[in-house]
Amino acid sequence: MTIKKHLVLYFLFAWILPPVAMLLLIRYNMFHTWVWFLMILYIPGTIFYFFWYIFPGRTPKEYLQDESST
Q1: Residues 49, 10 contacting (CB under 8 angstroms)
Q2: Model-level pTM greater than 0.70?
Q3: Are 30 and 70 in contact, with CB atoms under 8 Å apart?
Q4: What is the rounded CA–CA span in Å between residue 50 and residue 3?
């Protein structure tokens, strides 16, 4: 995947979906459910995605191959 596609995915998942999810949480008063827990996990996941894929470095597949060869 090209960097442009990764940027599009990053902005979709990091900037568009969380506000929509938060509006749904507020609208349907779901803060007491497991959905809130998933949102808490979602934020570091998007940051991880950005730094792992956008900046130059090994892909997860290359990383796992290097780890398994030792």
Answers
A1: yes
A2: no
A3: no
A4: 11
Q: What is the mean pLDDT of the chain?
A: 73
**CA dist., res. 32 & res. 50, Å (int):** 29
Answer whether 39's CB lies under 8 Å from 21's CB: yes
The answer for residues whose C-beta is within 8 angstroms of residue 58's C-beta and 6 or more apart is 66
Q: Enter the tokens of residue 22.
A: 């938060």
Rounded Cα distance between 57 and 31, Å, is 37
| Alpha helices, DSSP H, located in the chain | 3-11, 17-27, 34-53, 60-69
The predicted-structure confidence for 1-20, as pLDDT tens digits, reads as follows 676 777 777 777 777 877 88
Structure tokens at 5: 């596609």
